[in-house]
Amino acid sequence: MTAQNPEPPVGGEKMLPKEPLDLPRPPAQASPLAEQSEAARATGVAGRPKSVHQNTVETILEWTAPGRPFRKRGKQYYLTSLLIMLLIEVILFLFSQYMLMLVVLSLVFVAFALVTIPPHDFRYRISSEGVTVEDHFFLWQELYDFYFKKREGIDVVHIRTHSFIPGELTLTLGTIDREHIKSALLPYLPYREVIRQNFMEKSGQWLEKNFPLEKETIPR
Question: Which of 126, 160, 156 is nearest to 143 (CA)?
């Protein structure tokens, strides 16, 4: 059975006007998946906000501070250290451990050099791309988290890295407040409030507390 062709319109009848093709089409409604992809593109790596000007690097915080915590030591510190070193050297000499004697001498020499020579000032910079310590630059993707500690009475921020080397960055705050550093790092790195001490740190604190090399002078 074949389909019949429609009869041509009668000459006296007028055809209805067709819909014009140049009218603007109604906007298509975006799907939820497309909205999520747009939101993901508006957000940077690891959820950090993307800067409005993507081709510029924005400096968030910059300061100078000593490269490491430093505190001047008195004569009692050197005398106590020398007495302990001599006692260890005598014990090692009795057991004929001459190589260990040289190691102990080297360690004491390095310790005396660190507490005698003050460190020079480092330039620290936190930007929208990472952290700069002097001439070393670390991207945010290379860093893991951060926490604060007090060493030699000075606030220090520790930033841990994903790689084993260097493993951790130590930035002395100097005159910068903790809250300023925290507000600059929080958009990019998680803040670890509590850090468990390892065996070496606990042992060092126990020795420092029970067998201090010098007595702390209390200011009047």
Answer: 160
Sign of the torsion formed by the C-alpha atoms of 176, 180, 184 and 187: positive
The owner of tokens 């951790």 is 168
- Contact between 147 and 158 under an 8 Å Cβ cutoff? The reply is yes
- Residue 26's region, left for phi above 0, alpha for psi from -120 to 50, else beta, is beta
Residue 214 to residue 73: CA distance in whole angstroms? 8
Expressed in percent and rounded to 5, the helix, strand and coil fractions of the chain are 35, 20, 45
pLDDT per position as a tens digit, 83-103 = 999 999 999 999 989 999 999
Q: Provide the edge-to-edge strand list for the sheet that holds 168-172.
A: 143-151, 154-161, 168-172
**Residue 175 token pair:** 């005159």
Whether 164 and 141 have beta carbons less than 8 Å apart is answered as no
Phi then psi for residue 104, to 5 deg, are -65, -45
- Does residue 88 contact residue 103 with C-beta atoms inside 8 Å? no
| pLDDT mean over 184-208 | 86
134-167 pLDDT, tens digit per residue, is 989 999 999 999 999 988 788 999 999 999 888 9
Hey, which residues does 158 pair with through a beta bridge?
A: 147, 170
Higher pLDDT, 187 or 34: 187
List the structure tokens of 142: 């290379």
